[in-house]
Amino acid sequence: MVDSKRPPGRGYTLGYLLGTLLLGGCALDGPQSIFETAGPVARHQAELFMFIFWFGVLVFVAVTGVLIYTVAKYRQRGDEDGSVPQQIHGVAWLEATWTAAPAVILIIIGIPTVGMIFNQESRVDPAQKDLVVNVTGYQWWWEFEYPELGITTANELHIPTGRRVVLNLESGDVLHSFWVPRLAGKRDLIPNQDNQLWIEADEPGLYRGQCAELCLGAHAYMRFRVVASDEAEFSAWAGLFEPGGAQQVQAQADAEQIAAGQALFKTKGCATCHAVLGYAYGEKAPNLTNFGIRTSLAAGVLDNTPENLAAWLRNPDAIKPGNYMPRLWPLPEEIQDDAQETEIEAEIAALVAYLESLGKPVPLSASARVGR
Ligand code: CUA
Fold this sequence. Notes:
Blueprint (H helix, E strand, L loop, with lengths): L9 H14 L16 H34 L18 H28 L11 E8 L2 E6 L4 E4 L1 E5 L4 E7 L4 E5 L3 E6 L5 E5 L5 E7 L11 E7 L1 H9 L15 H13 L2 H4 L1 E2 L3 E2 L14 E2 L4 E2 L2 H9 L1 H4 L18 H20 L6 H7 L2
Parallel strand pairs: 1-5, 4-10
Antiparallel strand pairs: 1-2, 2-3, 5-8, 6-7, 6-9, 9-10, 11-12, 13-14
Helix pairs in contact: 2-3, 5-9, 7-9
Bound molecules: dinuclear copper ion (CUA).
């Protein structure tokens, strides 16, 4: 027989420790936490969630309380003979109560929920000076097009703070889902269906997002970032896309290398898939017009540093398995010849210099030409 007075054994202790470790992964303040809201849409959604959660706790406590009370009060006691208690059929008031109570509970939850659905409807309101961005999901990256500004960019969505941004969500291939947990809940991108979502950021900052719908291959690496800044900074960013804004061969020490990289961009075939405003017009892969000022590369997977970019160019599949970026050179272990390796490294260094120069602050003379 089990001795119920025995203190909890090692199994319990281990269970508690393991539970603590597992639950320790659930931080409330992570970079993609829905509880660290940074805009009105996410905030209202989190408030509704918390309301429903605590209401659920209330219902749980009430039902469990009544259950425990009943079990304790009407349990069989030692001095009873164990015969079947008196049988009754139905208690009208009790049955009416537990039929009505769930309906009342659903109404209490339903009213704020329906209100929220209308509040989050993504209609464009001209009076509010909404910014419209067309978002297209591709395997496995994001295109952001600003129709009013004539801007097309990728994987990094720039928005001004304190303004509604209405996103038209489309897909270029399969199902994807746009999700920036700190700004708004998920919404799917579905081929041939117009979905919309509006977001707004309260404060300048960098907000992480990711595709939240299994889209095969590199789905787990289909990330992106939202960069929120004040109106002045947002306008400065948008200005980089004006003619001459991003296209410059800098009058700097590395100008020669940048020019070599720019030429390689075409001879190596990059321009077949990628666009750079005023220079290349590929459409199958992310537009790189302002690549040099992006914080990340490979759709939010790596921070944008020259080292990471060189590693990405050399072997994209090692960083983002299954992606469609081809490998343009043999790997170091496939090469016997030192001279060939040196040549490859020089080519990659030139491409890195060129790509990192894209969108960088325009040199003074060119800056004057653009008028910013
Ligand atoms: Cu796109 Cu998952």
